[in-house]
Specification:
The protein has two helices and eleven strands, in the order H-E-E-E-E-E-E-E-E-E-E-E-H. The protein is α+β, with helices and mostly antiparallel strands. Strands 1, 2, 3, 4, 5, 6, 7, 8, 9, 10 and 11 form an eleven-stranded antiparallel beta sheet that branches. The longest helix is centred in the C-terminal third of the chain and has 46 residues. It is elongated, with a radius of gyration of 35 Å. The two termini are about 65 Å apart.
Length: about 325
């Protein structure tokens, strides 16, 4: 009797575990694996031997250039929700003396918290599309459209193979921006490659090649190495002074920190999406098997017929004479 009761209890617990595993995988995991509303990140990339325009001497100078990106999630934004994250990002580019080489850039991005794609919202500082500050969870080996603020449009980041950073497997993407006129400027003709010293309207021409390393489970960017080139070009098509040419990449320390952070997020996602559901489901299967075994081995409970009463011998009958 006890075996049968215990068997039924284990069968119930096993079925409950299987249901819980399914709920974790289908309900809890999608809820937890989303972009955070309160994102905070800081990235620094450096080129120790860049070329840039010194505005005081109006000449090209070689020296160290540092670009810093600060990202902050705005949890108080009216459009921040279960589906949308509002992230502000600010970029500064300075020389070794800390002087700004370009105007600081401040951008507000509204991101789909599941796909990481830019979405329309009133808080966004521009009509942004494609990916911006991160890649999607479960990044695939395919091309992605990634926003480039200098040209004001998304440019294809081509999948270029697998790589490894500090023991972390990553996907490599390459984004190439061809020479593009991003604005015009009034400058002396000699600065824009013209023979005249008179002021001319020069094109500011930008191009770049960017290599992005992405941890695919988390979608986090582990490394971004970019080679931007910005030059002045006069009305005659001659190229003049270089405004900025650099090979900006992370420091060794920054690369190690980014790889460790991506690995930590990857492990957390794997725990919720795979390890925990499989562990609960495995426990459920064991409980079902043990419960079924106990039921099969338990007595069937059939009642035996009571034995017939023994026949008592009768005493001999004696007749009186």
């Amino acid at each position: 009797m006890r075996r049968r009761v215990l068997g039924f209890v284990l069968l119930g617990l096993g079925a409950l575990c299987l249901g819980a595993a399914l709920a974790v995988r289908l309900v809890l995991a999608p809820t937890l694996v989303t972009l955070p509303l309160d994102q905070k990140a800081s990235v620094t990339v450096v080129d120790p031997d860049a070329t840039y325009l010194d505005f005081e001497s109006l000449s090209e100078v070689s020296g160290e250039v540092t670009a810093r990106l600060q990202v902050r999630g705005d949890v108080t934004a009216g459009e921040a929700s279960d589906d949308v994250a509002v992230w502000s990002s600010g970029t500064t580019i300075t020389n070794e003396d800390g002087d700004l080489l370009t105007e600081p850039a401040e951008v507000v991005n509204c991101l789909d918290r599941t796909t990481a794609e830019a979405v329309d919202c009133d808080a966004a500082s521009a009509d942004i599309d494609g990916l911006t500050l991160t890649f999607p969870f479960d990044t695939q080996q395919q091309d992605y459209e990634v926003w480039n603020g200098n040209v004001g449009e998304a440019v294809t980041a081509r999948y270029d193979g697998e790589d490894e950073v500090e023991g972390v497997e990553v996907y490599r993407f390459v984004q190439t921006v061809p020479e593009t006129v991003i604005r015009t400027a009034e400058v002396p003709g000699t600065f824009a490659g013209e023979s005249s010293a008179d002021t001319v309207t020069a094109d500011v021409v930008y191009s770049s090649e960017r290599t992005i390393l992405v941890e695919p489970v988390s979608g986090k960017i582990v490394s971004s190495v970019e080679h931007p080139v910005t030059v002045l070009r006069g009305p005659g098509g001659d190229t003049g002074l270089t405004v900025l040419e650099a090979e900006l990449g992370p420091t060794d320390e920054g690369l190690g920190d980014a790889a460790a952070g991506a690995a930590e997020t990857r492990d957390q996602i794997t725990l919720v999406q795979r390890t925990l559901p499989l562990a609960i489901a495995g426990l459920g299967v064991v409980l079902l098997l043990v419960g079924a075994f106990l039921l099969l081995r338990a007595p069937r409970g059939a009642h035996r017929a009571d034995p017939a009463p023994a026949v008592q011998p009768t005493a001999p009958v004696t007749f009186a004479k």
